[in-house]
Amino acid sequence: MPDDPDLPSWARRLRDRARELGLTDSEVARRTGLSQSRYANYTNGVREPDLATLVAVCRVLETTPYPILGVTAERGGGGPFAVERAEALRLVGALGQILLPLAVGILRALAAYGPPGPERSPSGGGAPRRRRPPEA
Fold first, then answer.
1. Which of 11, 21, 23, 89 is least surrounded by CB atoms within 10 angstroms?
2. How far is the C-alpha of 103 from the C-alpha of 135, rounded, in Å?
3. Burial class (CB in 10 A: 0-12, 13-18, 19+), 31
4. Cβ atoms 65, 58 nearer than 8 A
5. Are residues 77 and 66 in contact, defined by beta-carbon separation less than 8 angstroms?
6. What is the 3-state secondary structure (H, E, C) of 27-75?
7. Would you list the domain boundaries of the chain?
8. Total Cβ atoms within 10 A of residue 28
9. Residue 69: exposure state from Cβ atoms within 10 A (0-12, 13-18, ≥19)
10. Which residue, among 62, 71, 27, 32, has the nearest Cα to 49 in the 3D structure?
């Protein structure tokens, strides 16, 4: 199939990555647990996958969503903690459908707790002070 100039770049990157690995669309769909027609909707740019689906597809394609979405250090993927974010995303992709919701819950709890400040050093220094969660 010739490259479609109207095809979104992320869909083209999905196709290209599968080709690099020698995988057909039907094989990627099978390994991801998607129907062939659903995966075809993604590779044809008809629909955008949700985050969990994108992570699952990237796991099969042995990559992370960053290169599929075109995120590079020059385009917003760099900055503080870029390496840690990329590693976290890679690890999330390895969790699967059972552990992914648990990991999201843990991340939400950590985000609600807040970053370490002078009163809570990650290097120890006693028990951290608890902050009250924001009231709804």
1. 21
2. 23
3. middle
4. yes
5. yes
6. HHHHHHCCCHHHHHHHHCCCCCCCHHHHHHHHHHCCCCHHHHHCCCHHH
7. 9-113
8. 22
9. middle
10. 32
Place of tokens 């992914």: 100
Higher pLDDT, residue 131 or 22: 22
Structurally, at CATH architecture level, domain 9-113 sits in Orthogonal Bundle (1.10)
11, amino acid identity:
A
Contacts of 92 (CB under 8 A, 6+ apart): 55, 100, 103
DSSP 8-state code for residue 4:
P
pTM of the full predicted structure?
A: 0.54
Q: What's the residue count for the chain?
A: 136
SS3 15: helix
Please, are residues 18 and 12 in contact by the beta-carbon 8 Å criterion? no
